[in-house]
Amino acid sequence: KKSIHRICSGQVITDIASAVKELVENSLDAGATNIEIRFKHYGLDTIEVVDNGNGISSDDHACIAKKYYTSKLNEFEDLSKLGTFGFRGEALSSLCALSDLQVSTATAQETPKGHSLTFNHEGDLVKHAVVPFQKGTMITVQNIFSTLPVRRKHLERNYKKEYSKALVLLQMYAVVSVNKRILVYHQPKGGGRQLQLSSNKNPSMLKNIMNVFGTKVSSSLTAWNDDFINGYISRPQIAGIKSSSEGQMLFLNGRPITHPKVHRLIMEVYRSFSVNQSPFFAVNLVLPEDYCKKFAIRYSLCDQTEYSLSQAKPYTPKVLQKP
Ligand code: ADP
Ligand code: MG
Fold first, then answer.
1. Given 173, 199, 225, which residue is the final one in a domain?
2. How many CA atoms lie within 13 A of 150 on its CB side?
3. Where is the DNA mismatch repair protein S5 domain (predicted)?
4. Fewer CB near the terminus (10 Å): N or C of the chain?
5. Protein residues near ligand 2, an ion, with CB under 5 A
């Protein structure tokens, strides 16, 4: 039974990027305006997400890492929504099954006191201590995939690539998160702390782009605003922009997505105007929720993490290929 839980968890959390995505989304859900993501040795040793959100109330301490536990009751009211974002109540329990999980948290009422919580692989709260802590939550994931040796081996062989996938995702959050501060630190083995990317608490996406990609990119952009689009795309006449898929970002209602069709459309329109160049773009599609459902827009944030927004199909995890 234990191993079944681990295998299922391995389909919720497939890689470092999906772990990071779940943690950051939890911070955003908790109303955080300040989120710090800290990696030790490319996330192989530690992935830590610290936020200034609402914290976890003590009633919830013992349950948060239980399977299907969620405190986000309002989301249950709309059952169709429950199916859309998927994984409800599965992230922390899966991370527990796959790693060593430690949580520190304090609510506004409790701070400057807070709690340090340790969970075992089954999601049971096994240690509790009262500690000084600022309002917010810190989740520390150590030795990810240590309970799935084959996956761990795969990660150890590809850790730089896996780490950069997580960074690309974080770049997207940093670009789209207006009025939020997102910082990423990386501490390589034996080395000092490095800041990888930051987006200031800025009131505009353009400023975020500047912070994440530099002024050379941000000054080459033109605003793209339409009924249901807001964003930026690089001007075709500007040469010499180093473009890669890294600088091509799509969002749906402020959440990172991949959408091959829309992506291709943007590329085609761009190429019809321009030299043989790839654009930089950061485009947020602003669509009503039911419209998203009708067109079954996929929320695909990491390669294997797909959400179907079509009402008819609840999310079913893809069976992973053996690495
Ligand atoms: P879900 O997000 O679907 O509710 P998770 O497994 O991701 O499920 O999280 C379980 C619960 O843990 C959440 O419902 C929430 O109560 C709590 N939680 C997790 N991360 C945070 C955070 N950063 N701040 C506040 N509460 C959190
Ligand atoms: Mg969650």
1. 199
2. 8
3. 209-302
4. N
5. 26, 91
